[in-house]
Amino acid sequence: MQHTIKLGIVGYGNLGKGVRKAIDQNPDMELVAVFTRRTPSELESGSAGVKFEHISAAERYKGIIDVMILCGGSATDLPEQTPQLASLFNTVDSFDTHAKIPEFFEAVDAVARKADTLSVISTGWDPGLFSLNRLLAEAILPQGTDYTFWGKGVSQGHSDAIRRVPGVKGGVQYTVPVQAVIDRIRAGETPALSTREKHLRECYVVAEEGADQDAIRETIVNMPNYFADYDTTVTFITEEQLQNEHKGMPHGGFVIRSGITGEGTKQIVEFGLKLESNPEFTASVLVACARAAVRLRGEGAVGAKTVFDLPLGYLSPKSPEQLRRELL
Amino acid sequence: MQHTIKLGIVGYGNLGKGVRKAIDQNPDMELVAVFTRRTPSELESGSAGVKFEHISAAERYKGIIDVMILCGGSATDLPEQTPQLASLFNTVDSFDTHAKIPEFFEAVDAVARKADTLSVISTGWDPGLFSLNRLLAEAILPQGTDYTFWGKGVSQGHSDAIRRVPGVKGGVQYTVPVQAVIDRIRAGETPALSTREKHLRECYVVAEEGADQDAIRETIVNMPNYFADYDTTVTFITEEQLQNEHKGMPHGGFVIRSGITGEGTKQIVEFGLKLESNPEFTASVLVACARAAVRLRGEGAVGAKTVFDLPLGYLSPKSPEQLRRELL
């Protein structure tokens, strides 16, 4: 019988709360403490049985916590926190600024190797499961074209952009994959498509009283970078509708590779997610990766790792024998 | 620059031919020879540039061939050939008798450990990619229900059963997933379903001249085990139609897990394949796994392995740096 995997959470926003819930679903895991930059006692209401600590107390948990799950943002939190905590603990994070992954990897790798720890970086669903599926399909079908579609889901950046428009009181933006394009690809076509040809943008906007709705609509649909190049719809709703119908954080998407084997034989591989909660699902991926981090570290591995480096059997609590019997 | 991976193929049916074509698509690989129990010279027509050897000559290639890709059947070939060849070479096979995988694993593992070789067993798409996706989705969503659908695709066993019916000259059977059931699951329902509730059986039959078509239909749809418990359709066609419209070997299917996180949040993970050629796709998976076998063996690993034991990055010819930059 293996010992329980002891976990810490750093950061207690939507993702951190999702990790707490995911740990509850895994009997081989135990939450030791949540670390925060806020005043720990402020977080206690509604989280009975969870121990909160200030982030400055983390070092005292060295040797107690097996893996720290880092739930900060990619813009400013993780570039600082992952290297810092990797000097003390094994870590898992969801760093998702694609263009900066190589330098992030190098920075974390150097710290972790020196500290004899292991850090699984940039996991979740994209980067993460989508990346795995892009790799898998490309390795099997070297001749082919692949497509990533996101949505239907909330884009935080685009929602923020809407809310900055004068006369807008609130709003949310959904990125929506174009079904007709997906159907063409599933039918075997391999069109060359930009991100904007694959996605629509649906905006739900609460206008301030007396605001000019036509002017708001024009400002949004013509906004450069965010909306101008996309098919964008703007629907005005009430504040109540925004609260009641748009409070979820759904997301998802598809990775499709359309390849050729032999003499023109078409082969299509598709992976898709339909998520009612993006942060809860991402959290569940982080928790499974924490299990893999413990296993790999137990074999002597150190440094930064990505999903590409993990034998997937290590994500499961089941033994290799059980996996072969039940799931192969 | 790594040296080219030198491969042998054992068995030259549809799968072996598919492996030859897949090797051609991978510039880091080279086919050294095809081994057969038949007279090698008989196989040469239509396969220019391929060297054929009798299976008894395999031993002479020890130290020359990096991985033998075993393309025999699971019923009688592989239980004998994999252990035999694992005593001399690294191997990859597609042993797919699910119930016998544990004992097959043990037998191959013992031989390979003794011989200091590595064998990736039971790979392809099911077992193989479908297994990986069952594991991945279950590890991430421990609370959930999963579903495997096969098809639309040819079932060899059921096609053989049709052809044994008196008055039948030829025929083919397609296993077809029930679209309405897939739609329910994609919409979030988690019904309890047996294999027969998830699949239809479509039979295309060529009757002998003067044969009683109604009697043939009755015999097929009432055949125990094969058809009696399924919704089965029988369509009579001409010999020309059988040749022209049913000569392909399409297959595919879906693995869907419908899970719950937090307080009843629905999360759906789906993996699907739509294959114009089952053997060519399976062959492409075997070839990518041969690359992983070489990498793992290069790290000192020996014994039997399954897809659960492979870091997926090892399937790709790209370096870890390149994978992180391009695919993560």
Can you offer a commentary on this structure?
Two copies of one chain form a homodimer. Chain A is α/β, with parallel strands linked by helices. Helix content of chain A is 34%, strand content 27%. Chain A contains eleven helices and 14 strands. Chain A is globular and about 60 Å long. The relative contact order of chain A is 0.15. Chains A and B meet through helix 1, helix 3, helix 4, strand 13 and helix 10 of A and helix 1, helix 3, helix 4, strand 13 and helix 10 of B. Chains A, B: Belongs to the diaminopimelate dehydrogenase family. Chains A, B: Homodimer. Chains A, B: InterPro entries: Diaminopimelate_DH_Ddh, Meso-DAP_DH_C, NAD(P)-bd_dom_sf.
In short:
Two copies of one chain form a homodimer. Chain A has helices at residues 14-24, 77-86, 101-115, 129-140, 156-163, 179-186, 195-198, 213-221, 239-245, 278-298, 320-326; strands at 5-10, 29-36, 52-54, 67-70, 90-93, 118-120, 144-150, 153-154, 168-177, 199-207, 231-236, 251-261, 265-275, 303-305.
